[in-house]
Amino acid sequence: MILTVTLNTALDITYRVRALRPHASHRVSEVTERPGGKGLNVARVLAALGHEVTVTGFAGGATGRVVQGQLTAAPGVVDALVPVTGATRRTIAVVDELTGDTTQLNEPGPTVTPAEWSAFQEAYEGLLASASAVALCGSLPPGVPVGAYATLVRSAKAAGVPVLLDTAGEALRRGIAARPDLIKPNADELAELTGSHEPLRATQDARRRGARAVVASLGAAGLIAATPEGRWRATPPTRLHGNPTGAGDSAVAGLLSGLVEKLPWPDRLARAVALSAASVVAPVAGEFDHRTYEELLGRVAVTGEVTAA
């Protein structure tokens, strides 16, 4: 079982409009709702790849009940969310059909009490006992300690469970010091962490700060990786247009599934890039176009060098 952690779960709402114009009224042509937050998106992609997945984090209020109700109907995903008094947040994505651009609005999330945080840690440690890998994903809701991911990384490592960390800002800075097996920042998050805007130098610096391996997303240009086994760059064969929301989460699912399946790094990176690209043409985050994924998988260019046996 793969475990994904989303401390700041959400109900993702996607609006599609013909053209988005500031200071104007818009007629929405289509509305979709899905359980959201980075770890839940990762979980749905993993389940679509055939993996058993359990999701945990926090859920509360009417929005939380909607999220849990939809998770119950999601094939291959087990709901282990921990209840909180506050209401689960919503995120709003507005897709401009004319340009393909997406505007994102993210609510902050419920305030988590110390007792709720303690209850989550207890539940999390119990779930680690049957996990083959864990992904710690997304922002921290109000009330959760800024060093929360460092605590969760240490718990996973004490249980012998490989851990991937995908967050940003101070939560990433604190979390990386606990030495996660893999971090997956985007280029901006990596530059904020290291102070370097040169991706190769920044990935190497992030490893020195504690991460065993670093895979950085370069958007439509693909991924760059620095690992104990080597350094690689993975590039998609073509640029696809659509909704990029959740593309990074699909990449995380590719990396995590490759880790569990013990694939060589170049194969993990090719899968991550193909899934990421295939999610851009899917209608909502947490999904990918299977045909596009299959077409791209063998065409992703992975270049680099092995630096260790």
What order do the helices and strands come in, and which of them pair?
Elements lengths: L1 E5 L3 E8 L10 E9 L1 H11 L4 E7 L1 H12 L4 E3 L2 E2 L5 E8 L5 E5 L7 H15 L4 E5 L10 H11 L4 E4 L2 H8 L5 E2 L3 H8 L4 H10 L4 E5 L5 E4 L3 E6 L11 H14 L4 H16 L9 H8 L3 E6 L3
Parallel strand pairs: 1-4, 1-9, 2-7, 4-5, 4-6, 9-10, 10-11, 11-12
Antiparallel strand pairs: 2-3, 7-8, 12-13, 13-14, 14-15
Helix pairs in contact: 1-8, 4-5, 6-7, 8-9, 9-10
Record keyword descriptors for this entry:
alpha/beta; 11-stranded mixed β-sheet; 10 helices; globular
What can you see in these coordinates?
With 309 residues, this protein is of the alpha/beta class. Helix content is 37%, strand content 26%. It has ten helices and 15 strands. The strands form two sheets. Strands 1, 4, 5, 6, 9, 10, 11, 12, 13, 14 and 15 form an eleven-stranded mixed β-sheet that branches. A four-stranded mixed β-sheet has the order 3-2-7-8. Helix 4 runs parallel beside helix 5 (169-176). The longest helix is centred in the C-terminal third of the chain and has 16 residues, at 265-280. It is globular and about 55 Å long. The chain starts with a strand and ends with a strand. 47% of the residues are buried. The mean pLDDT is 90.
